[in-house]
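Task: sequence design from structure.
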């Protein structure tokens, strides 16, 4: 199912559309499925008339200008305040507020594209589990921090995340005192967050770092209150980290890390960005160039991503369809690409609950190493759920307004793979061309197997006798038929089970 992207030899030079590598519907979707969570039909049509590099710049600049989501009042409540709210309304326990926080995130993933794609990515890098720290306020504060730094300065991100309430509780930083240093955060700071396993640090570095991170333990006896620095619990012993010796504290740890291990940090982070946004098959030469950009920009996340997303390497055919959709990809991209109303369905709540069942409980990854992604998402016990969760969206849309299915096809870009920018008129389009356009819209590389394509075509055509599709037939099939909605619904129901539908 996976493409072998080891043969992606394209460079980081800017992508320039050509006959061999056209700027078409499939490449527009490729960009939007990676940089965000899918494009609406209107966004696809608008993108086709834009320069790809300009489009990337606009998307990233919009994300940079986007303020973090305004949080509900309970983002700074302590445990007593949550318990008082539950007494007033027994349905509003802390589990209710945590679900509401996740629904808030799902809504942002649907709406805000680049910034919140990065927010989800970083939630699986700087992992915390809200099942561990339990506080709905800590959950929102952590989420807010991910949004704030999503495309900003990585060094500042590392600094702030380490002394956030959620992280301090999750990795026992709130128990790290001078007489009993706790090494959990120090270990993960290097192993998972900045350097990678066994890369540029020793056990002594971890132990000494743990001492330098002591003291962030004070809550002033307020349960789920802010955790702040208590100098009385800080170890004033001399410490040696990466060859630097002194009475080192938190600021010194971060400074020393980025001064002494800049190459390892940049390479590790850029490799993760590459695996997430391009392909799980790493191209070390491309990652090395990204790392140089990362360092020279002062660890600016937007700068290195802009270089990547505008490159011919990113738009190379071998990168398209090379990643298995996560549950969030599967449902949110499909929902956005259809753009259908689902009637009374609470979309945020449905997607939040369904992606949890499918293995991606947002803000609550499975462990400190996060979701393993790729083949993990399509284990046999999850596949049926993936198929049926997409069908649920189709069924809800059908119940809400069947006509929207026909309207979707009428405005769909239709043509060849190279110039597929034409919109069909109501009468006269060849049914095979219409079906090919639908397939190219939902599959990252279309369907190259003629047998499979003909099966899809047969499903679409099945509602009418063969004479409807013949030249000079009477009546002759066209897009004015109300039954076109039923044809599209049957097609969607069929393609969900095709393996390539699971790719992006």
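Answer:
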């Amino acid at each position: 199912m996976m493409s072998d992207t080891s043969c992606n030899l394209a460079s980081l030079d800017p992508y320039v559309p050509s006959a061999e590598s056209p700027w078409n519907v499939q490449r527009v979707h490729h960009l939007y499925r990676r940089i965000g969570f899918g494009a609406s039909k209107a966004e696809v049509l608008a993108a086709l008339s834009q320069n790809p590099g300009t489009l990337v710049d606009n998307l990233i600049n919009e994300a940079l200008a986007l303020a973090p989501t305004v949080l509900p009042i309970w983002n700074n409540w302590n445990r007593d305040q949550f318990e008082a709210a539950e007494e007033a309304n027994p349905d509003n326990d802390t589990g209710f507020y945590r679900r509401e926080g996740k629904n808030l995130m799902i809504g942002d993933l649907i709406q805000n594209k680049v910034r919140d794609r990065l927010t989800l990515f970083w939630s699986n890098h700087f992992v915390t589990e809200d099942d561990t720290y339990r506080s709905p306020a800590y959950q929102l504060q952590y989420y807010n921090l991910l949004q704030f730094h999503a495309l900003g300065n990585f060094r500042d991100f590392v600094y702030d995340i380490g002394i956030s309430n959620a992280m301090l509780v999750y990795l026992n930083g709130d128990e790290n005192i001078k007489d009993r240093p706790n090494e959990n955060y120090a270990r993960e700071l290097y192993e998972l967050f900045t350097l990678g396993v066994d890369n540029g640090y020793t056990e002594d570095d971890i132990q000494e770092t743990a001492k330098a991170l002591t003291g962030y333990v004070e809550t002033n006896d307020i349960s789920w209150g802010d955790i702040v620095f208590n100098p009385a619990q800080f170890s004033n012993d001399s410490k040696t980290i990466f060859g630097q010796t002194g009475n080192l504290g938190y600021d010194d740890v971060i400074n020393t890390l980025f001064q002494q291990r800049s190459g390892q940090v940049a390479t590790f982070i850029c490799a993760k960005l590459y695996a997430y946004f391009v392909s799980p098959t790493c191209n070390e030469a491309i990652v090395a160039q990204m790392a140089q950009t990362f360092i020279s920009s002062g660890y600016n996340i937007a700068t290195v991503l802009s270089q990547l997303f505008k490159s011919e390497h990113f738009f190379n055919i071998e990168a398209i369809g090379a990643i298995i959709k996560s549950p969030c990809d599967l449902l949110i991209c499909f929902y956005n690409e259809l753009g259908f109303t689902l009637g009374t369905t609470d979309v945020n709540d449905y997607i939040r609950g369904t992606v949890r069942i499918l293995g991606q409980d947002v803000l609550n990854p499975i462990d400190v190493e996060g979701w393993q992604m790729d083949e993990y998402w399509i284990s046999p016990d999850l596949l049926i759920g993936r198929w049926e969760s997409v069908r649920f969206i189709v069924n809800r849309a059908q119940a809400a307004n069947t006509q929207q299915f026909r309207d979707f096809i009428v405005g769909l870009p239709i043509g060849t793979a190279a110039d597929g920018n034409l919109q069909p008129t109501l009468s006269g389009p060849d049914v095979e061309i219409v079906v090919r356009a639908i397939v190219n819209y939902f599959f990252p590389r279309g369907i190259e197997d003629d047998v499979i394509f003909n099966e899809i075509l047969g499903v679409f055509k099945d509602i009418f006798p063969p004479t409807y599709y013949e030249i000079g037939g009477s009546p002759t099939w066209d897009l004015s038929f109300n039954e076109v909605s039923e044809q599209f619904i049957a097609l969607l129901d069929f393609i969900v089970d095709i393996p390539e539908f699971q790719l992006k």
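The first helix runs from residue 25 to 35.
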